[in-house]
Amino acid sequence: MEIIDARDKPCPEPVVKTKNVLEAIAEGQINVLVNNIEACQNVQRFARSQGCEVKITENDGTFTIEITKRQKNSELNQRKNDVMLITSDRIGDGDESLGQLLMASFINTLDEINLKPSKIIFINRGVLLTTEGSRVLDTLQQLEKKGIQIFSCGTCLNHYQLKEKFKVGQVTNMYETVTSLVTAEKVIRI
Fold first, then answer.
1. What band does 80 get if pLDDT is binned at 50, 70 and 90?
2. How far apart are CA 48 and CA 68, in angstroms?
3. N or C: which end of the chain has fewer CB within 10 A?
4. Do 54 and 100 have their domain in common?
5. 101-120 per-position pLDDT tens digit
6. Between the CA of residue 190 and those of 85, 132, 146, what are the distances in Å?
7. What's 127's domain CATH number?
8. How far apart are CA 38 and CA 183, in angstroms?
């Protein structure tokens, strides 16, 4: 049994550490230690989404999450024709810097999960994420290397005068964007 000490680790690190260990074993048990309820709930949800059994105990503010992996569910790793549509460089309408931090965390976490969309389409302010200076440029390049198709709206790049700073994926047009969206099994809008 492996023990993962994720106490005092920021989101999403406890989940990422758990994911990495679960991927490395075919079957078995691991214990994850966290010291806040949000991390405990996040790890629990992740483990259950992977088909694992979860038992939680708490002692003096430390949660022990006992995760048992019985068999690999190959369906979890299958990529589907899912399209992610990203329309902004931030998540939410509140504080701009918080929204940008959340978007960076979202995209970085997307690289860590098993089931990924087949395409990510960036439109409007979303194209800022695929250009020079983006804090997620490295992650998007990694996703592209893993076979995820990355597209940025050419009209949007022109509008923001970013065509020369475009760094990852392919420039697309509205016809291709609409075709991708209407033929997708699922569209996820961020």
1. low
2. 10
3. N
4. no
5. 999 999 999 888 878 898 99
6. 6, 21, 21
7. 3.40.1260.10
8. 37
